[in-house]
Each structure stands twice: as structure tokens, then as C-alpha cells.
Design goal:
It is built from twelve helices and nine strands. The chain has about 280 residues and is of the alpha/beta class. Helix 3 crosses helix 12, helix 4 packs across helix 5 and helix 4 runs antiparallel to helix 9. The radius of gyration is 20 Å and the shape is globular.
Length: about 280
Amino acid sequence: MDPDYYLGIDGGGTRCRARLTDAQGVLLAQAEGGPANVFAAYDAAIDALNALIARVTSEARIAAARLHIVAGLAGANVPSVQRRLAGWRPACASLRVVTDVEIACMGAHGGAPGAVFIVGTGSQGACWDGDSFTLLGGWGFALSDLGSGAILGQRALRLALLAHEAILPTSPLTQRLMARFEDEAETLLLWSQQATTADWGSVVPEVFAAAQQGDVHGLALVRQSAEEIALMAQPLLARQSGKLALMGGLAQPIAPYLPETLRRQLTTPQGDALSGALALARHR
């Protein structure tokens, strides 16, 4: 019989990643591609995923038909998207599509029961009781995603515009953000009409840098995000006390601003989302 190969995919709002191993867990190939939020931009996400599968199979010189794939995708929690994903059939031996937060939860706790809250471009929480997942949040930029990079970036640019119009005091942060748009409100307006969640989140490193320098607006923005993360953490901790991991691109920079009581309750992730996807693939 042909040997089995396992492919884990982590598809987020900013990028997607893939990791390919053999049955013994030996790494054979890995690659990174563009955004893969199947709710925000389904067709573009599927294109990015297909390209990623092609890259890793080509690098490892393995026929795709021998792959067991688990793809954890941002936006895959939405029922209408789940129905649409039923039509995605890449060449493989088996395919399981879950959300990116589910594979993150599996990776964070090594497959054992626990909870996770992802704070990246978007945000979502999950609890795994050893049998099933309970999801929290993840309903998109317009309605949900508290504590996320996209929300933080949008707030920062809103505040920069308020300061630009002298409604609020300016700060070095607001001045730098408006300089991105030639200090023109209309330029910012036109940009905002086409901006993706990843575009909004692109200003986040500047916000954190400003907060570290004591910028009054930078500190206020980061502290508001920290408060939202603490809010979302409470129901997760109620289900899995002492077993909550914070993951995603904002997890490390936001940590110093979280309430001390929450910091004490967080656990260090054992593995990343791709290790969780591969664990699910091996236990298909």
C-alpha cells in the first residue's frame, strides 16, 4: 500500500501556511501564501489554498492523491460558508475543513482538553472538552473580532482622523498615521472604501510602537484591546479554568497590557495551529 502523508493548513485573514509530514511526523515541506479567509473572500482564499497544496506537493514530490488534509480556515464557522466549502474538492485521499481556532486549540494543548483565544487580524475563541468544540466569537470585522488587529487598526485610523480635524489632541502616533495618507482626509476615505481587514491591521505595529514610547493615544488604544481580550477570556476560562492559551500575531505584544489576574491564568501553547491540524489529520 502507498504510505500516508499528512498536510496541515492554517488559513487566516493575513496569510495561510501549510506543513506536510509523513506518517512518522517527519517534516517534508512547508510553505506560506496569501490570505485565506473563506468568508471575507471565498474565491481568493480557495485559490491561495490550492496554490499552497500544489507548492508543498511539488516540493516534496508527492502525489496529492496520497494526502490526508486538515484545513483550519478563518470564516469556516459560518454555516453558509460551510455549505459552499462542501464543493471544494482538492485532489487528496481525505479532507477535513474546520476553523482556524479549532486547530489552534488542538495545537496549544497537544490534543488534550483546553481553551484558546486567537488574536490576529480577526479574533475567535474555542474550547475542546476532549470530544467536541465550543466556539466563541469569530463573526467578522463588522460585528465581532474584539481585541483583533483589524479592529485596533480601524480605531487607530478613526482616532487619527479625529485628531487631524482638531476634535481630539494630536500625538506623534496620529500624525504618523495621517502622514500615510498625505495628511488628507479624502485620501484616507478613499483608501477605507477598499480596505481589507489585513489593510486595517497593517497599522498595528505602529500603534504598539507608539504605546511603548508612552504615546497617549497609542496607550489608550492598546489598553482598550487588552480589556476586550480580557472580556472574551472570561467565558473560556469558566469552561477550562487554568487551560487558556492566547495565540495569534497580537498575543505576544498585547501580553504586558493584559490584567495581571488574566496573565496569571494563561498557559503557554505546547504547539502551533499547524501542529494541531496535523494531529487532527493523523486521527482522522
